[in-house]
Amino acid sequence: MARTEKKKDVVIVGLGWTGSILGMELAQDGLEIVALERGHDQDTVPNFQYPNMIDELKYGVRLGMMQKPHNSTVTIRRDVNETALPYRSLGSFLPGIGVGGAGTHWNGLNWRPQLSEYRLRSYVEERWGAGIIPEDMQIQDYPVTYDELEPFFDRFEHVAGISGMAGNVKGKIIEGGNPFEAPRSREYPMPAMPTTWDGAKFAEAARAAGCHPFPSPGGIASQAYVNEYGMQMGPCNHCGFCERYGCYNYSKSSPQTAILDALKRKPNFEYRTQADVLRVEMAADGKTATGVTYYDYKTGEEVFQPADLVILAAYQLHNVHLMLLSGIGQPYDPATGEGVTGRNYAYQMNGGYTLFFKDEHFNPFIGTGANGMSIDDFGMDNIDFGREGFIGGAYWRSGQTNGQPIRSMSLPKGSPSWGAGWKQAVGEWYGHSMNIGSHGSHMSYRGNFLDLDPTYKDPLGRPLMRMTFNWNPNDIRMTQFMKSKMEPIAASMNPTSMQEGFKKEGAMYDVRPYQTTHNVGGSVMGADPKTSAVNRYLQAWDKHNIFVLGAGAFPQNTQYNPTGMVGGLAYWAAHAIRTDYLRNPRPLV
Amino acid sequence: MRDVPGLPSRRTFLKASAASAAIAGIAAVPAKAEQKPEPVALTEYKPDCLTPSEWAFVMAAVARLIPSDGEGPGAIEARVPVFIDKQLAGDYGRAADWYMQGPHDAAASPLRGWQTPLNPLQIYQQAIPFFDAWCKTTHGKIFAELDAETQDKALTSLQKDEMKIAPELRDFFTILLANTKEGYFADPMYGGNHGMEAWKYIGFPGARGSYKEWVLKHNKPYPLGPVSISGERA
């Protein structure tokens, strides 16, 4: 039943952002490469075309671009004493499916973490002492510095086509940009996008409160753009269908708009869809991989794909799942603290205010995923953790992303959920509200981790991965701090009414409402093989021809959306492979 | 091509293109008729999956969840029952995309998401007779036969789960209400939001999808009505 394919130099598992980047970079060295994508093929035309793409029911509500839990999901429990239950229908997070992966349906928000975040444990210990770190918190330093990563952040931003306004170029602070960002070597590739009324109002209030608003940086083209691969983007028309949708306008950064057509022209690159990788196969000595075995949905058979180099470029959850299924790294055990694969799973702590203005018109359908104005005044670099009693930070943003009425219908507290009162409220309040969001960091803890579920299996017989996760008091204190700072700024805007949505002490993880698809950790990068699954080049410690890309590498979550870091790390790893590993394959550390 | 007063509209443009294409001897898609024929009356509608008693319940329930009186269309004018019937007859009703393998723990904390072994269609099929029986015991008649005020009371009891519905069915009110709002606001091609009246009522322009010139027109109401995915306009 198993078929064996012709050997390749490189096999890439997953064809989203990181798979496309590694494919493009390694193809330039003439290597024979195959990428295996478990989902379907898709491209701007015909899959994302106007008008069929901008269908809220099909894509926004029924989640047409997302993975089907029927084929692939996780089980979830809040602590080790609970029985994990399947994540049967999608809610809290939405992994994508198909070529381009989550890079097709993201909002486009693109950031670089702040300077303190790359060496968080050292930073905290130096300033406040190890005593302020809660006993069960497992924060770690990245094994790479910002200065080392800077050229690769820059590279990703210029490939992806990011619009924004620099606030710090080589240490020089630029008025109107983000003065708290890590110094960048040059401006963003495109000027910032204009903001809608909500962002403008927020910026004015924030400025009056002594904060430093700047246009939100994002992978949304503010003008025509051509990147280094010859890929073209067209200026965005603010259609208000970014998140959960593919862009019909070639305006949103994605593997499709930035890389794939150029990559498909390389004669030494091939990709196969509906190829679901079951496991990475190992050599007899266990020190290297020999390739991967996948299930070919087109022929219904298992296929062995031999390769010298294995790149795991699936979504964070799937990379960790494959590692657990294949025996890459020792599985993490929270009871002993030993093991690395699945360790330090982390998420994101978000909150915000909704403000209602009876007589103002926001036209919420005019939006982009990265719209509006942000502030970083409450970012990690700017908070006295010792004084405030938590470790973390957040960036705030106000900028409407869509006015799709099934899901984006904010009503003042006390409005009925149905009946004549509901109908009157939607007529009265649609288009008359705005949000300010706090997008916060999330630390890593002994008790939040990933392993294999003992009970539930997927249709191909693989045990589902089990997520053990709950909110922790440190991050609740962080988000409550944000609430206390945001409340007076929101009130200064004199809304008709306003209401908060911040998690409170004792909050339990609720898998139903969408929160964010920023699942991180589990294949953490680090300097110590006892507390990390991959080294500073994202190379598996115990199997040197396996590299594990993506947000699984984050030792804890940053306060920002992860894609900028994921892209930067992908170029960083690709550079190490091309300039060092290929001529002498070995453990690089 | 934007529909700005005084300028050629997208529809005019499409008609013109079709005409030039015809002149050039190329097969062209004919321009859509301005007026779509009125669909079959809800009382004559033949459901894809709902039985007559289920249809009667859905008709009665959505009429209270989004009533017809006051400004804006009600769920009946929006043809929400047709939407619900078609959704339940399709992938959504069958939970085709969801992980439905057991073991199931339907009584788990609601925070843990969908844990019933039933799909949405099965929940409607089992919860409607249960709720009707409760209405009969408590209010003397099945739901569809109660007066509007009593129906509102009964729906409130259902929302608060005063009748202690089985855990397998406990999401019934939640999905009924969600499906009703979906049918009210989804593109008309799914059977509800008839004539885009719900979009007109709140001021959502539907599938226009092009607002570049409007981004910086801060705090001014957007002037154009909606278009649908199939090209209807209102």
From TrEMBL, chain A:
Protein name stated in the entry: Gluconate 2-dehydrogenase alpha chain
Keyword 4Fe-4S: no
Enzyme Commission number: 1.1.99.3
Residues of the Glucose-methanol-choline oxidoreductase N-terminal domain: 233-337
GO molecular function, one term: gluconate 2-dehydrogenase (acceptor) activity
UniProt similarity note: Belongs to the GMC oxidoreductase family.
Domain Glucose-methanol-choline oxidoreductase C-terminal stretches: 448-567
Organism domain of life: Bacteria
Keywords, ordered alphabetically: FAD, Flavoprotein, Oxidoreductase
Keyword Oxidoreductase among UniProt keywords: yes
Pfam families, alphabetized: GMC_oxred_C, GMC_oxred_N
Organism: Neorhizobium huautlense
UniProtKB/TrEMBL annotation, chain B:
Lineage: Bacteria, Pseudomonadati, Pseudomonadota, Alphaproteobacteria, Hyphomicrobiales
InterPro entries xrefs: Gluconate_2DH_su3, TAT_signal, TAT_signal_bac_arc
EC number annotated for this UniProt entry: 1.1.99.3
Oxidoreductase recorded as keyword: yes
Keyword Transmembrane appears in the UniProt entry: no
GO molecular function, a single term: gluconate 2-dehydrogenase (acceptor) activity
Enzyme class label: oxidoreductase
Protein name, per record: Gluconate 2-dehydrogenase gamma chain
Keyword set, alphabetical order: Oxidoreductase
